[in-house]
Structure formats: structure tokens, C-alpha cells
């Protein structure tokens, strides 16, 4: 749901105005809270308008690397954001704390909260919402349609393949592995890539026990790159007591990916799903997706 | 003799009015700093104009009126409440290390708040949560203090060892409860709980200031009345009873006042450790231990400390901000240790 306020309401009415006048009235100093939203903003060509992003906005590094950081998305500071003299705040509905959003409304900063969901097919809609907020409907529509088409081709490519069961480990704290259950970005990407989540019965990420791993007995284990490094490589992972008894460890099928790319649920979702599917189905030949403006930045 | 101790000696030798004036002046200076310093650069003139309602820029006025002023007041109220509660528990239990967090009162408030973060959206009608959290935190802290003081009471006397051990047990229980809630929570709720336990006054709004004010001001108004009873309690409960104080009633009322202050403070700001333990000791070391001095000066000192800590918290990594609990610990911990080291002979007696 997009809450349109002040400028936003005006922005929709602006569609009727001549382009030059319209550009002058659009928000020119943007602060964005949410990694996927920042990617969309940049893809829509609005990077020059960015004056600050949150710490979950890490891509494209070229653009966001030099921008002021307003802190972690759940612990924003009203005055910190205002110190960047923004004319508009575009934030995920995960942004908070709620009191800070209330404060920003109280000081009448125009802002839009964009809903986040775990549905892959919601990404094109998310692009449209950002585009509307920024007055970039035409570019947004083209981008949303392209992403929807790319998602469809990934789905078509994996449709006929056997679905391996996949256990996704998000992170390790000490020797505890946090495995992804239902209602996670990991499950969305597993499903999109023609596989099934080996973990059933809980939501979010929870510590994995050796017994639960054995009961799930996945064909493939997936770890983020940085966790593979932290745990000392694939061979070391296969020997971890939590997973060593599983089919995946026995056959050495351990896949690693950049977690930001894989779990971002942003404009790069179809390409991430394609790369993930290629890793999960080593025998299959999946047609490559054409590079897009937002995947090569 | 160290500078600090000399300074302290001079302070104690000042007349009472001068000391009060000095403390209040410090508090006012901290409040002024808190209004003038922040991520948005404002000159003193801008601040004064905004306060008088003559700001040239609407956003400048909003920064002062909607952000810095409620934030300053809330930090001051929370700091005063925590320090006052600390001073009262230390007097009540005749134990220098009694502190809201040590005997589990903060943890009791935390577990209720965590439960509301996780289940509030399901259990309560939308919009009730901001009001339910202070009430819940108050109920949680009241329940813990009631349980702990009941357990610690043996033959009409409060056993300090029992009190601390019961506090440790309650702390462990409440932590386990919070842990269970973290386990049940989704990603977002988990992060909220984590950051809540680090403390912040960043979410200050006028609604919260109004909701918090009675929780802190009521105990503060009653402080002079408690002061004499707490002085008498220092001699021992029987002795206080012989002096004509109705010890049980004083204890019960003090516990209630204390839970009100801690519950109110914790519910709006999360867990801010250290203030309740250290500020009363600083006051004792510099102004003396009589409760009629200790209670009000602890409140003023706590308010000053927390307002200054908040100024640091919101400027040091601007435009982001640090949890204030980290600042209070980083500023106060070493300062307190230094003070203890320099005056430790007095503790040997």
C-alpha cells in the first residue's frame, strides 16, 4: 500500500503538466530507506536526486557508496534524516521505529511507505509504486513489464525440471546455523528457481539442529558467500555436525551465493533466480536472461 | 587528595541553596545544549526564534517543537525517574548495589514489552499499542518488585541476600521469557526487541511525554515524604518502627512509586542501564547520603546525565544515531570507576 501525502498527491496530478514544469515540481532531494527501493530508484534514473540512504542500501555500490547513511532501517532518526534537508522520504514499510515515522509526519516531511512482501510477483508492482512516487510512471511501467517477463522466462525454464529439496542457511552465530523456513525471501527464491524448501513447519529463520537437518534431509545446502568463508569453506561445512548426516553433505552439493543479490527481492530478482536455478540444476541448460540496465550497474 | 575529591569536598561545603542552584543550573545548561545541538544545524538565534514561535522556516520550528523539545523533556523525565528509583531502592533495601536492572524490575518490564511487540498486533485493537506498552511495562515492573520483596521478607525483615538472589532468579526467568518471545518473533519483531533492549529516547513525541510525566512527577512529589522514612530505615526496620514510622506501609508505597517510575521510563525508552545505579552514588559521594538531599539531587543528576548522553547519542554518528544505553555505560562506567578508586578507603570501614 502506498500512502500518498502532500507532494505525492500532487505528483499524480502532475502527470497532466508539461514535462519541464513537472520535473521542476518533483521531489529533488530524496532519502531512501530499503535496499530494494534504492535499487529501483537508481534503475529509474533518479540516482542524482539521492541525498541519503539507509544501511541496507548497498547496491549499486558505485552510487550508494558515497551517500550519507541514515542508519539501520529499523532504527532511523528523524532529525538525522531532516539534517539532509530532504524533500521526500521513500521508505519500505519495514522502516521504523514507528515513532520516528510519526515524528516525520508531524514535521510534514512528504513521505511514502512502500509495502514489502515475500511474493516474487509483487516486485513489478513495487517498481510501479516507486515510479509513481517519483513521477516516473513511463519508465516504471517499462521496467515492471521487463521484470515480469524475465520472471516468466525463469519460471518457464525451470518448469519441467525435477525439484530438489533445498536447505537455506542464512547465517551462523557461533556454531548455530539459522535455517530459513516459511515466509522468508529464501523460500521465495527456492520456489522461483524450481526447487522446494526442505524446511517445513516454521516461519522466519530459526536455529537448525542436527536432527531437524537429518529429518529434512535436503539434496542441496545453500549458504551465503560470507558464511561459507566464515565457516572455513565447503569441505568444512560438509563436516559440520548439524548437516554432516544429510544427503547434501554426503554428495557435496553445497551451493553458495551472494545473499544480498539472492534475497534482495528487488529489480534483480529474475536474474538472481536464474543464477540460483543454474546452481541448483547443474545438468540443465537454462537460457540466459538478457542483461538489464539494473543488473549491470 | 584528588581533584575530584577536592571538588566534591568543596561542593559539600557550599551552602545548600548554592548547591541546589548549581545543580539546577547544570540541568538547564544540559537542556539548552540538547535544544541547540543536533543533526540539523541550527544557530542559537534560530532556536530562540523557534521557541518564541517566530521561526522564519517552518521546518526549523518543527525540528525544535516536534523533535528536540519532546526529546529533551523525555530524556530528562526518564533520567530523573531511573535515578530516583535507583536511590529509593538502594535506601529501601539498604543495599548500595540495588538497582532496577539488578533485581529484575527492568527485565520484568522488558518481557511484557517484548510480548506486546510480538503479540500486540494480534491481541489489541489497532492504535492501542502505544498506550498499552507503558501500562504493560508498569504492570511488569510492579509484579517483579512485589514478588521479589515478598520473597525477600523473612519475619518482617527484608533479607538483602534473599532479595538479590530472588532478583537474579527473576532476571533469569524474564530473560528466558524474552528469549522465547525472540524465538517466536519474526525478523522485524526480533530487531525491534533487540534495539529496544539497548534503549533510545529517539521516538519521543508529545503523547509519550504527557503519558510519562505523571509516572515520574508523582514519585518525585512524594520524595520528601519518603526521605525521612528512608533515613530511618537506614538504621534498620525495627529501629524505624520504633521511631514511629509505619515501615510496611512506607515500603509498599515506595515499591509502588518505584515501579511507576521504572515502568514508565522503560516503556518509552527501552532499557537504559547504569543511570539508576550510578547517579545516586555520585550524589552520595558529592552531596551526602541523607535522603532529603539524595532523592531530589539524584533526580536532577539523572535528568542531566541522560539529556547529555542523548545529545552525544544523536550527534556522534549523525545522520544515524547510537543507542543511548551504550552512551550512558561508556560515559558513566569509567567515571564511576575512577570515583570509586579514588575514594575506596571510605568503603573499607
Primary descriptors:
heterodimer; A: Rossmann fold; Rossmann fold; B: 349 residues; mainly alpha; ABC transporter involved in vitamin B12 uptake, BtuC; two-stranded antiparallel sheet; 1% strand; disordered N terminus
Structure description:
The complex is a heterodimer of chains A (297) and B (349). Chain A is an alpha/beta fold. Chain A is built from 15 helices and ten strands. In chain A, strand 3 (88-92), helix 6 (98-106) and strand 4 form a beta-alpha-beta unit. In chain A, helix 7 (122-134) runs antiparallel to helix 8 and helix 8 runs parallel beside helix 15. The longest helix of chain A has 22 residues, at 137-158. Chain B is an all-alpha fold. Chain B has a single domain (2-348), classed as ABC transporter involved in vitamin B12 uptake, BtuC (Orthogonal Bundle). The interface between A and B is medium-sized, with 34 and 33 residues.
In short:
The complex is a heterodimer of chains A (297) and B (349). Chain A contains 15 helices and 10 strands.
Question: What topology does this entry show?
Answer:
The complex is a heterodimer of chains A (297) and B (349).
Chain A: H1 7-14, H2 19-25, E1 30-33, H3 35-43, E2 50-53, H4 61-64, H5 78-82, E3 88-92, H6 98-106, E4 111-114, H7 122-134, H8 137-158, E5 165-173, E6 176-180, H9 185-192, E7 196-197, E8 205-207, H10 210-216, E9 220-224, H11 225-231, H12 234-238, H13 247-251, E10 254-257, H14 259-263, H15 269-280
Parallel strand pairs in A: 1-2, 1-3, 3-4, 5-7, 5-9, 9-10
Antiparallel strand pairs in A: 5-6, 6-8
Helix pairs in contact in A: 7-8, 8-15
Chain B: H1 3-13, H2 16-36, H3 44-51, H4 58-92, H5 105-123, H6 129-152, E1 153-154, E2 157-158, H7 160-184, H8 187-198, H9 206-233, H10 237-242, H11 247-269, H12 275-287, H13 291-315, H14 324-342, H15 345-348
Antiparallel strand pairs in B: 1-2
Amino acid at each position: 500500500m502506498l500512502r500518498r501525502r502532500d507532494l505525492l498527491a500532487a505528483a499524480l496530478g502532475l502527470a497532466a503538466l508539461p514535462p519541464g514544469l513537472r520535473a521542476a515540481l518533483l521531489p529533488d532531494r530524496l532519502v531512501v530507506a530499503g535496499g530494494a527501493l534504492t535499487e529501483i530508484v537508481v534503475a529509474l534514473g533518479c540516482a542524482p536526486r539521492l541525498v541519503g540512504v539507509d544501511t541496507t542500501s548497498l547496491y549499486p555500490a558505485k552510487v550508494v557508496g558515497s551517500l550519507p547513511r541514515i542508519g539501520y532501517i529499523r532504527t532511523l532518526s528523524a532529525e538525522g534524516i531532516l539534517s539532509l534537508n530532504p524533500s521526500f522520504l521513500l521508505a519500505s514499510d519495514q522502516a521504523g521505529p514507528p515513532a520516528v515515522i510519526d515524528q516525520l509526519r508531524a514535521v510534514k516531511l512528504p513521505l511514502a511507505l512502500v509495502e514489502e512482501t515475500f511474493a516474487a510477483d509483487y516486485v513489478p508492482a513495487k517498481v510501479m509504486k516507486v515510479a509513481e512516487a517519483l513521477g516516473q510512471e513511463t519508465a516504471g511501467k517499462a521496467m515492471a513489464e521487463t521484470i515480469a517477463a524475465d520472471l516468466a522466462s525463469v519460471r518457464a525454464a525451470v518448469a519441467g525440471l525435477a525439484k530438489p529439496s533445498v536447505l537455506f542457511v542464512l547465517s551462523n552465530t557461533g556454531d548455530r546455523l539459522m535455517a530459513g523456513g516459511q515466509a522468508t525471501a529464501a523460500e521465495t527464491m527456492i520456489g522461483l528457481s524450481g526447487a522446494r524448501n526442505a524446511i517445513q513447519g516454521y516461519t522466519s529463520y530459526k536455529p537448525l539442529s542436527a536432527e531437524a537437518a537429518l529429518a529434512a534431509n535436503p539434496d542441496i545446502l545453500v549458504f551465503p558467500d560470507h558464511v561459507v568463508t566464515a565457516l572455513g569453506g565447503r569441505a568444512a561445512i560438509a563436516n559440520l555436525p548439524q548437516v554432516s548426516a544429510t544427503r547434501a553433505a554426503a554428495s557435496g552439493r553445497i551451493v553458495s551465493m551472494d545473499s544480498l543479490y539472492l534475497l534482495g527481492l528487488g529489480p534483480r530478482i529474475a536474474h538472481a533466480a536464474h543464477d540460483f536455478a543454474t546452481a541448483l540444476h547443474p545438468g540443465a541448460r537454462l537460457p540466459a536472461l538478457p542483461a538489464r540496465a539494473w543488473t549491470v550497474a | 587528595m584528588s581533584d575530584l575529591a577536592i571538588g566534591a569536598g568543596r561542593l559539600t561545603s557550599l551552602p545548600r541553596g548554592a548547591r541546589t542552584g548549581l545543580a539546577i543550573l547544570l540541568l538547564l545548561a544540559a537542556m539548552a545544549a540538547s535544544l541547540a545541538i543536533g543533526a540539523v544545524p541550527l544557530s542559537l538565534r534560530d532556536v530562540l526564534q523557534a521557541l518564541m514561535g517566530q521561526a522564519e522556516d517552518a521546518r526549523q520550528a518543527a525540528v525544535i517543537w516536534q523533535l528536540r523539545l519532546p526529546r529533551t523533556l523525555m530524556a530528562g523525565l526518564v533520567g530523573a525517574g531511573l535515578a530516583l528509583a535507583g536511590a529509593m531502592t538502594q535506601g529501601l533495601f539498604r543495599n548500595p548495589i540495588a538497582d532496577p536492572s539488578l533485581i529484575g524490575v527492568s527485565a520484568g518490564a522488558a518481557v511484557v514489552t517484548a510480548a506486546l511487540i510480538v503479540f500486540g498486533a494480534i491481541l489489541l485493537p489497532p492504535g492501542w499499542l502505544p498506550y498499552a506498552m507503558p501500562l504493560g511495562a508498569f504492570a511488569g515492573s510492579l509484579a517483579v518488585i512485589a514478588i521479589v520483596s515478598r520473597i525477600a521478607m523473612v519475619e518482617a525483615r527484608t533479607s538483602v541476600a534473599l532479595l538479590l538472589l530472588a532478583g537474579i532468579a527473576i532476571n533469569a526467568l524474564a530473560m528466558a521469557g524474552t528469549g522465547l518471545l525472540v524465538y517466536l518473533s519474526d525478523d522485524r519483531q526480533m530487531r525491534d526487541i533487540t534495539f529496544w533492549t539497548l534503549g533510545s529516547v529517539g521516538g519521543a513525541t508529545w503523547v509519550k511525554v504527557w503519558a510519562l510525566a505523571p509516572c515520574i512527577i508523582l514519585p518525585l512529589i512524594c520524595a520528601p515524604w519518603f526521605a525521612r522514612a528512608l533515613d530511618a530505615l537506614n538504621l534498620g526496620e525495627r529501629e524505624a518502627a520504633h521511631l514511629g514510622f509505619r515501615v510496611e506501609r512506607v515500603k509498599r508505597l515506595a515499591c509502588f512509586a518505584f515501579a511507576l517510575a521504572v515502568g514508565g521510563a522503560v516503556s518509552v525508552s527501552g532499557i537504559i542501564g547504569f543511570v539508576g545505579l550510578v547517579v545516586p552514588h555520585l550524589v552520595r559521594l558529592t552531596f551526602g547520603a541523607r535522603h532529603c538531599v539524595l532523592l531530589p539531587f539524584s533526580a536532577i543528576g539523572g535528568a542531566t546525565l541522560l539529556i547529555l548522553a542523548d545529545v552525544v547519542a544523536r550527534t556522534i554518528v549523525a545522520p544515524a544515531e547510537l543507542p543511548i544505553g551504550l552512551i550512558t555505560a561508556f560515559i558513566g562506567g569509567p567515571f564511576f570507576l575512577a570515583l570509586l578508586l579514588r575514594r575506596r578507603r571510605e568503603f573499607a570501614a
